[in-house]
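Researcher: We're teaching a course module on how sequence relates to structure. For the next exercise, students receive a sequence and then see the predicted structure as C-alpha cells, so they can try to spot secondary structure elements on their own. Here is the exercise chain.
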Amino acid sequence: MWFDSFLESLVFNRALVDAIVFMNAQVKTEELSTVLDMTMSLVVGNPRRPLKEVIPVIIESAFSQHTDPLMTKLRKQILAKPEVLMVIVALIKETKVYQSPQKSSTAWNTLLQETPACELGPFIELQSPDLKPTDPITIADHQWLSLQNVEIWVWVRGDKPINISLTTGPCTAHGRLYPDPHMDTVNAMIKQGASLVKIQLGSLCQEVNPTCNIKPLESSPITFPFAWDRMFHSLMAASGVTAHSHYLAWYTKSARGVKRAEHPDSPGPGNEPSSSNTRPCTNPDATVTVSGNSAQPSVASSACDNAQHDDGKSKSKSKSKAGGKRSGKGKGRAK
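Model: And here is the predicted structure for the students to work with:
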C-alpha cells in the first residue's frame, strides 16, 4: 500500500495522532466538498473525540485532456486546506483520444457477432501475439487504448502554501513513469515531502501532549513510500481493463441498436410494447453491464488504486470514510 511502509517505519505515539490513508474519500470544508483519489489524514487527539483532522498529502490522477479541471480542483482544495504539505499528480496522455468503432468497420462486423460480450481475458487475447507491452491495444483493426506517456508531478510546501502553477523551482519536480521511466527528481522531491510529514507528526503529538518524547520519531528513517515498478505493472494491467471497458460500453450501445433494428417491434427489458416508441430509456453515464461483465475503472483511477495493493494482499483492513476506503496503519495504537 502507498505510504504504509513509510508510516509504519515512523516511531510515534499513535494514541496521540493516528495516521490513515484514504482512497476516493470525500473531503469537506465549509467552502468545498470534493472526492480525491488518495489522501493521507492525520487525526489529532482521542479518536472518539478528535481535536482536528490534518491532510498533509494529496494524490490525484487524470487523463491529460482533463488537466484543467483537475488543476482547478486541486487549487480549490489547497485554498481550503493550506496546511497540505505535498501534492502528487499523475497525468496520463493518450496518442489519440479514444473513439468507438464506426458502423461497417472490421470491429463492428466481427465483435458484434459475439454473444454475449467478451470477458476481459478473451477480449485481450484477440490482440496480435507479437505486440510489445507499450504498443496500442488494437483488436479487430480498432485502437481501444493507446498510451503515449505518464508524467508525474510533485509539489511540496515551502514557507507559503503549495502553488501548483509552478513548474520549476525548489518546491516542485517533474518526471516520467511511462514508457521510459525517469523518476530521480520526483523521488527526491517525494522524500522531501515525507520529511515534512514526519516533522508535522512530531509537532501534532506535542500539541496534544507537550511532554511527549518525539526523539524516537526524529531518529526514524525515511522509508520511500512507493514502488514505481509495481505501479508500472499496475498501469499495464489497468490499460487492458480500460480498453475492455471501452469495448463493453460500445458493445452494449451498439448491440442494443442492432437488435432494435432487426426486431423493431420487440420491447426493451422491462418496457411494454408501444406503437409510437419502442426505445428503452437509458442513461449514457450509467455503469455498463453486459452478461455479468461490468465496465471497469479507467486507467486514471486504476493505475493508482492497483498500485496501492501489495500483490493484491493488503495487511490493513478496509474501512469507510464518507464513501471512501480507508487503509489503517496496523502497528497498534501506541508505541
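Model: If you want an answer key for the exercise: The helical segments are 4-8, 67-80, 106-111, 120-124, 184-208, 215-218, 228-262, 299-307. The longest strand covers residues 17-28.
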